[in-house]
Amino acid sequence: MPELPEVETVRRGLEKKLKNFIIEDIKILRSSTIAFPKNKVEFIRGVNNSKVGKWQRRGKYLIANLKKYSKSPKKNINPPYEDNGYLIIHLRMTGYFNWITTKTPPCKHTRVRFFDKNNSELRFVDVRSFGQIWWVKEGLDPKEIINGLGSLGPEPLEKNFNLSYLNKEFSKRTKSVKSVLLDQKIIAGIGNIYADESLYEAGISPFREARTINNDELIRLKNSIINVLKKSIGSGGTTFSDFRNIEGTNGDYSMQANVYRRAGKKCKKCNNLIQRKKLSGRGTHWCDFCQK
Ligand SMILES: [Zn+2]
Predict the structure, then answer these.
(1) Selecting from 3.40.50.150, 3.20.20.140, 3.20.190.10, 2.40.50.140, what CATH number does the domain 4-150 have?
(2) How far is the CA of 288 from the centre of ligand 1 (A)?
(3) Cα(273) to centroid of ligand 1, in Å?
(4) What is this structure's pTM?
(5) 37-58 tens-digit pLDDT
């Protein structure tokens, strides 16, 4: 499942490849992928003839600014575009984009296809079909249309992800520290892989009650999260999973997981075996000796 580093990698790929991409045609192969507006004719009419501008990321959401050809361009304004809201995507479990410049027939998991006038294509493929696409038209607030986006906690790589914030959030929670890390309302963008890896690097057991984490441990955890995410973004964000970027390639594997999917293998610090157990439904990997 793509997490912050993977989604950031996709964002960078989209920004690089879709410079001046103007959507001239849209084919929706699976209606349920379009989350808003529910009416797919409205979606297609709304998004068509839009130029895709800057891409942002918030948590695991991808957000593109759209500009539409103005039907009645005001004089002296060049180019004749007007703001046309946002195209927003959540990849969920298995969604990914493919950037296609030579005609290729869609695979059976293709859900939505965006074309420009040269028939270059931005293709959204999603095996499990949990991925979602929204068009939030100009004047509407994306945070109000998309609940998950409106309730996101701070970005781990931004300033408001700091010790006093973490102290406040952790000290009032009895659930496990790992569950807190996975809660998008508390911290945006962390999923199973980076939760396990950050806790290992910080030497903290995933099963500890969040409120029992002391100040020094919280400093270690905060630094580990930042470090693990930055390293992974730096190596293409696709190192730990089979996730592909928009050009269909994987990360460079320069960074190997320490615990994730390493159950039964030796811990790189102490040589004891990495354990695996389910915690709130998620496979959790840790070293019983190194993580207290
Ligand atoms: Zn160990």
Answers:
(1) 3.20.190.10
(2) 7
(3) 7
(4) 0.93
(5) 999 999 999 999 999 999 999 9
